[in-house]
Amino acid sequence: MEAVHTHGIWIAERLQRTTISHEQLWLTITHIGDPKAAFLLIFPFTYFISKRTGIAVLWTAAVSEWLNLVVKWMLFGERPYWWIGESRLFVNKPPHVQQFSSTCETGPGSPSGHAMVTAAVWWVVVSALGTFLYSRTRSVTLASAPYLFYLVMLVSVGLSRIFILAHFPHQVIAGSITGFILGVALSHRVPDGRSLLFFFSLSTGLLLSTVMLHAGLQRLGIDLSWSIVLAKKWCSHAEWIRLDTAPFSSLTRDCGALLGLGMAQYWKPGGWSLPWAPRALSLAISSMGLYHVNRLPLPIRPPGLFYGLFFIKFVMVPQIVMVLVPGLVHMVTHKKRN
């Protein structure tokens, strides 16, 4: 793998050198590709256009990010920003690269979670949009436009991850291919209308099985904290290492969102039926609510408290989008109509 990693470093160096003037654009794209964006941005936007598509987005984001975590633990992928120093291959000719505020993620690097979740989630969105456009226009050209956007999105997110030294090119490619396959598979298996027991069992099962896998690997002498140690060693700014990028943060986000999805469908089966104007209002209020929920500061000590509160935060995401805000908007607009 040394040759593959070395070639990846030189690709990142060339990309930084030729596009450094677009640094802010790359950072914005990498934020759009963050798995967290699927829960906080794409999910509410799609839900208020099509309930089933919105549920499919949340479902696909949670399952694909969880699977990405498990695969990363199995593959022990390096990240460019620490491999440069650890490999000791660049002592005489160090690459002219720099780190950024989004560089220092602490989990293993392969496959890319940004690429994998983006490929899975956006496939759900563009396939639904493409099908809708074709059903209305019977135009293959117009219906193909979302798929072109999908390709551009994948390439852009992948390049942004290489640019900031978070991933090697082969990790981005692996994540994109895996995410595409997952998107195709999961979009046909949307748990719309499933029981609360199903979601509770799924959330608990994913959480416990992952914790047991972690404990089992630790007992076999496999130190899964190796990537965190390297991240702290080679990150150029200590404050860029955040607990919400740790592997267990992804796990608690996914399990919390799945449980929250089940609770939301239990409280209000079928969701609220709203005309387009109240839907737009619900989207605006939900987006503001999720923005402030995401910004809530959480104590990082002890870590168990942080992960518990992080879990609760993402349990609340579907409640806000699917039950609380549209219910409030329905109540207000219904009174006005009367």
TrEMBL record:
Signal peptide boundaries: none
Record InterPro entries: Glucose-6-phosphatase, PAP2/HPO, PAP2/HPO_sf
GO cellular component terms, semicolon-separated: endoplasmic reticulum membrane
Gene Ontology molecular function: glucose-6-phosphatase activity
Keyword Zinc found: no
Pathway(s) this gene product operates in, as recorded in its UniProt entry: Carbohydrate biosynthesis; gluconeogenesis
Cellular compartment(s): Endoplasmic reticulum membrane
Catalytic residues of the enzyme: H114, H167
Domain called Phosphatidic acid phosphatase type 2/haloperoxidase: residue spans: 53-187
GO biological process: gluconeogenesis; glucose 6-phosphate metabolic process
Positions with a binding annotation for substrate: R79, R161
Membrane topology: Multi-pass membrane protein
Cross-referenced SUPFAM superfamilies: Acid phosphatase/Vanadium-dependent haloperoxidase
Gene3D superfamilies: Phosphatidic acid phosphatase type 2/haloperoxidase
Keywords recorded for this protein, A-Z: Endoplasmic reticulum, Gluconeogenesis, Hydrolase, Membrane, Transmembrane, Transmembrane helix
Family that this chain belongs to: Belongs to the glucose-6-phosphatase family.
UniProt-recorded name of the protein: Glucose-6-phosphatase 3
Source species taxonomy: Eukaryota, Metazoa, Chordata, Craniata, Vertebrata
Underlying gene: g6pc3
